[in-house]
């Protein structure tokens, strides 16, 4: 923290900090939309990025600070200040205006309502230390055993027990960056071992314990690849597994020690703990390893805290929440979402072993009732079990009315399961609005996209054939019984982005299916000691999830997977060894076996399908062959295959290099299933191969046409551009000539443009037109379409190219400064003067645009200009231009565009508050018409603020 520490630690500065933050909060309350959607400012909030304070708002903020504190701040401060902490530092050193105000006494932070969170923590260790310093005896965990016992653990107890473990690790020579594996069930030992490893500077590697400890030998042999890949030096396990685990040392050369948590604990020791940084590894989270090459997702303290904070912001989490979890602690939802989330936000976590839920699923719901749980998460199958399998007698007296966030993730979300769960438990107080389909993956720590809090699940009905043939997610007819249904998983978490790309790695428009990619502060840097898998993970700075989906309205709908993993009952099943073993069975064509997962509505999870080719004629030994295949699958998976399909040669789809195309085989299977009833017949897979090939050819043809269109538009633009410069030299006719060129480009491009409401724009008088900004084509489009000679207001950076600046000025563009406060204020006065002279000005109120859809907060410039000049403001919404040309792409697409102008609006007064209210009303109208999500709405109302 460096220079920030004196301010943070000196109690005498607390009143000034609190007052400063209140001034900022008041400005935000006046400026942001109604409804209390305010980001609570902290000393380390970014003024622009986090709080949305633009240059004009900074001027207003400076005035208020100087009035409130009776000081004179340096003129350059607000242009250079990045955070309120910078303002506070300058404020404390500021020149008093008049006599110096008396120093206020320190103000203690009350604990009424929700507790604060450790916003300044850079590591999980610092977060725990912060809570111990502020409320050591607060209960952090309630451990629910297999029975009805409940064991509380406070923050102070967790740290003391973890320090004892860290001392034992240090004594055994375990130090910085060494991997320590944890194979423990849910319980006190797991928590103290995990944090003890962190305190020792080592890296925890959770691996799941055996379902039965009697089978630990076989289980460990399956985990040997993980232990070897991470180079584990020590394994923490149960007493009953120690002897067997020591036998693993022959398979894992680095594994020098096996111990229990009790073995490691040195009570009363005061170890010299190493310094741990935000960039240090905090977790290796393995996504596979029992078959195939293990992939350990490397996550730093910074990655984990970024994800926890983003999820907490999106969900409105506070210390008043109660999380009830049965999720395994080797899984990201249970480990990071539940435990680490609780550690950070100080909400109570009531946690039970997964076996407790599986043995009696009603225990989950009973715990929600008993502890008035507000949050819980589970894979889809758990909700399905509760919706369909529980006896009414197990639910007597149940009250779920406190449950506000029921997250459904980690496997495909079934719309039917959501409906069944909501329907069954409505009588027990369960609100449909609490159900939240979410999406995430280990490579993003845990969470990536969440829907808005308090919105009932949104289900999209899609035409099955259109999705299969063209990849378009078109709405199905109301009477279409074959329609596909997908649950909406919401928008990316704050600070994160996602996109959908086609096979050519180009971003696709909305409602087109492709691969889901993401980036953000939670993203892993790669897989531990697996360079090949890491290369496959990245596409530039984007990470490929291996999942398929599409976006609509800026929100994500997951449709399937490209990657081969099968998720069954929350467990990961990997196909590689099964395919190899089945291929060695006499009668099966070697190398011609595909294992994949398909949705199973009856169980709410996926079922495992084994597709195997044979040359045996139909009926000749097929039953015996099917039995042999089923036996081989059971031996390797530990669970039976749900269906074994015997198919003729060439039914299993492959790449040109001979690799199994599991996703394509899965698609063919599902299409065959959709044509009939019951299991797929042996010949059905091959029958659909031709139609699948035709669909791929059609998609290829569409991509070629898109490339040709993009090349045509740029060629046309270049030709017309050669005429633009001479036209700009015509003193009298240049504006008309340039406008004619813009209209020619628009007509020749063939863009389907719909225009509405342009008659609302006055033909004379002071007018300010405010519009959203989504693409590079927005300016030329409005220049060609607006019925008046309007002047576009553009950022001064565009004037850097002399030739371009000359043409733009000829077209009437007004350049304004965004960063220099003095020049920005002068530009604001100049714009107001132009408006008073009767000029029509066009403002892109967001100031810029991004590749991701969404209406950003509006800057104040247009509205201050309108207030000072008395001009009418015309809201104008652009819809569809982002799909034509996104921010990070240069090849345009042909897509429908809509331009819609609203009715003129006037400010209700001449002050800042009137301008802010005008901005709110104009933005609301544009938001309703532009068809994009409100990215400013990721800021949520504070829940019980301190």
Task: Please explain how this structure is put together.
The protein is an alpha/beta fold. The protein folds into 5 domains: 2-96, ACP-like (Non-ribosomal Peptide Synthetase Peptidyl Carrier Protein, Chain A), CATH 1.10.1200; 124-137 and 152-304 and 329-339, ANL, N-terminal domain (Rossmann fold), CATH 3.40.50.12780; 457-561, Luciferase, domain 3 (Roll), CATH 2.30.38.10; 573-687, ANL, C-terminal domain (GMP Synthetase, Chain A, domain 3, 2-Layer Sandwich), CATH 3.30.300.30; 733-934, Glycerol-3-phosphate (1)-acyltransferase. Helices cover 37% and strands 18% of the residues. It is built from 31 helices and 36 strands. A 7-stranded mixed sheet has the order 30-36-35-31-34-32-33, sandwiched between helices. Strands 20, 21, 22, 23 and 24 form a 5-stranded antiparallel sheet that branches. A 4-stranded mixed sheet has the order 4-3-12-11, with helices on both faces. Helix 16 links the parallel strand 13 and strand 14 (405-408). Helix 7 (155-171) crosses helix 8 and helix 29 crosses helix 31. Mean pLDDT is 82; it is low at 1-10, 99-112 and 938-946.
The description of the largest β-sheet is: 7 strands, mixed
The total count of helices amounts to: 31
| Tally of structural domains | 5
Query: What percent strand?
Result: 15-25%
**What is the CATH T-level topology of the largest domain?**
Glycerol-3-phosphate (1)-acyltransferase
């Amino acid at each position: 923290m460096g220079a920030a520490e004196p301010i943070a630690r000196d109690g005498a500065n607390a009143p000034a900090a609190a007052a400063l933050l209140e001034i900022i909060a008041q400005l935000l309350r006046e400026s942001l939309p109604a409804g209390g959607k305010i980001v609570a400012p902290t000393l380390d909030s970014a003024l622009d990025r986090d709080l949305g304070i633009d240059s004009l708002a900074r001027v207003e903020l400076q005035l208020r600070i100087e009035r409130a504190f009776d000081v004179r701040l340096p003129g350059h401060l607000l242009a250079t200040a990045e955070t309120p902490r910078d303002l506070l530092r300058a404020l404390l050193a500021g020149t008093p205006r008049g006599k110096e105000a008396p120093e206020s006494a320190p103000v203690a932070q009350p604990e009424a309502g929700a507790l604060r969170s450790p916003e300044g923590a850079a590591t999980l260790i610092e977060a725990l230390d912060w809570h111990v310093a502020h409320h050591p005896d607060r209960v952090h965990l309630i451990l629910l055993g297999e029975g009805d016992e409940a064991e509380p653990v406070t923050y102070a107890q967790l740290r003391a027990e973890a320090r004892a473990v860290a001392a034992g690790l240090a004594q055994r020579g375990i130090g910085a960056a060494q991997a320590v594996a944890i194979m423990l069930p849910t319980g006190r030992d797991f928590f103290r071992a995990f944090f003890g490893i962190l305190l020792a500077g080592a890296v925890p590697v959770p691996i799941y314990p055996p379902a039965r400890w009697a089978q630990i030998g076989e289980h460990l042999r399956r985990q040997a690849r993980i232990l070897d890949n991470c180079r584990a030096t020590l394994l923490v396990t149960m007493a009953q597994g120690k002897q067997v685990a020591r036998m693993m040392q022959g398979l894992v050369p680095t594994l020098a020690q096996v111990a229990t948590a009790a073995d490691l604990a040195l009570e009363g020791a005061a170890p010299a703990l190493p310094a741990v940084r935000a960039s240090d590894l905090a977790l290796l989270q393995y996504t596979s390893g029992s078959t195939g090459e293990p992939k350990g997702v490397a996550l730093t303290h910074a990655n984990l805290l970024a994800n926890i904070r983003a999820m907490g912001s999106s969900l409105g989490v506070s210390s008043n929440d109660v999380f009830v979890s049965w999720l395994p602690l080797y899984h990201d939802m249970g480990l990071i979402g539940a435990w680490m989330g609780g550690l950070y936000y100080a909400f109570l976590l009531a946690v039970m072993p997964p076996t407790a839920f599986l043995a009696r699923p009603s225990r989950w719901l009973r715990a929600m009732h008993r502890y008035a749980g507000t949050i819980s998460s589970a894979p889809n199958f758990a909700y399905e079990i509760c919706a369909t399998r529980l006896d009414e007698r197990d639910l007597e007296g149940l009250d779920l009315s406190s449950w506000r966030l029921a997250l459904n993730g980690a496997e495909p979300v079934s719309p039917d399961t959501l409906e069944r769960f909501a329907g069954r438990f409505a009588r027990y107080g369960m609100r449909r609005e609490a159900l939240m389909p979410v999406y995430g993956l280990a490579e993003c720590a845990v969470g990536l996209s969440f829907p808005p809090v308090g919105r009932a699940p949104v289900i999209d009905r899609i035409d099955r054939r259109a999705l299969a043939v063209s990849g378009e997610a078109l709405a199905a007819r109301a009477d279409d019984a074959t329609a596909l249904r997908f649950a909406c998983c919401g928008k990316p978490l704050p600070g994160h982005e996602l996109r959908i790309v086609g096979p050519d790695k180009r971003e696709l428009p909305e409602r087109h299916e492709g691969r889901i990619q993401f980036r953000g502060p939670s993203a892993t840097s790669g897989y531990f000691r697996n360079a090949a898998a890491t290369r496959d993970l990245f596409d530039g700075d984007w990470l490929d999830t291996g999942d398929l989906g599409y976006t609509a309205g800026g929100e994500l709908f997951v449709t399937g997977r490209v990657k081969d993993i099968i998720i069954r009952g929350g467990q990961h099943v990997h196909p590689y060894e099964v395919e190899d073993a089945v291929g060695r069975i006499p009668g099966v064509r070697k190398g011609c076996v595909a294992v994949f997962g398909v949705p199973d509505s009856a169980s709410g999870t996926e079922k495992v399908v084994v597709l195997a080719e044979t040359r045996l004629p139909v009926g000749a030994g097929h039953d015996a062959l099917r039995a042999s295949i089923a036996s081989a699958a059971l031996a390797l998976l530990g669970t039976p295959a749900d269906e074994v399909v015997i198919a003729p040669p060439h039914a299993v789809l492959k790449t040109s290099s001979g690799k199994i195309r599991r996703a394509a085989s899965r698609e063919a299977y599902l299409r065959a299933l959709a044509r009939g009833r019951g299991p797929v017949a042996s010949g059905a897979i091959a029958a659909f191969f031709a139609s699948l090939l035709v669909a791929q050819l059609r998609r290829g043809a569409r991509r070629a046409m898109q490339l040709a269109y993009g090349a045509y538009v740029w060629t046309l633009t270049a030709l017309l551009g050669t005429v633009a410069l001479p036209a700009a030299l015509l003193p009298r006719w240049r504006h008309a000539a340039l406008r004619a060129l813009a209209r020619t480009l628009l007509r020749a491009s063939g863009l389907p443009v719909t225009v509405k409401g342009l008659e609302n724009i006055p033909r004379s008088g002071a007018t300010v037109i405010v519009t959203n900004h989504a693409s590079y084509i927005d300016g030329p489009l409005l220049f060609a379409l607006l019925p008046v000679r309007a002047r576009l207001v553009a950022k001064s950076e565009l004037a850097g190219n002399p030739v371009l600046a000359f043409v733009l000025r000829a077209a009437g563009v007004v350049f304004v400064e965004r960063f220099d406060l003095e020049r920005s204020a002068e530009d604001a006065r100049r714009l107001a003067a132009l408006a008073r002279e009767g000029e029509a000005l066009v403002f892109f109120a967001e100031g810029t645009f991004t590749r991701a859809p969404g209406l950003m907060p509006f800057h104040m410039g247009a509205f201050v200009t309108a207030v000072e000049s008395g001009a009418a403001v015309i809201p104008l919404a652009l819809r569809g231009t982002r799909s034509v040309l996104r921010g990070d792409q240069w090849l345009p697409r042909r897509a429908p565009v809509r331009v819609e102008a609203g009715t003129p609006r006037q400010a209700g007064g001449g002050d800042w508050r009137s301008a802010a209210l005008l901005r709110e009303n104009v933005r609301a109208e544009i938001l309703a018409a532009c068809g994009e999500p409100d990215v400013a709405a990721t800021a949520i109302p504070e829940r019980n603020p301190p």
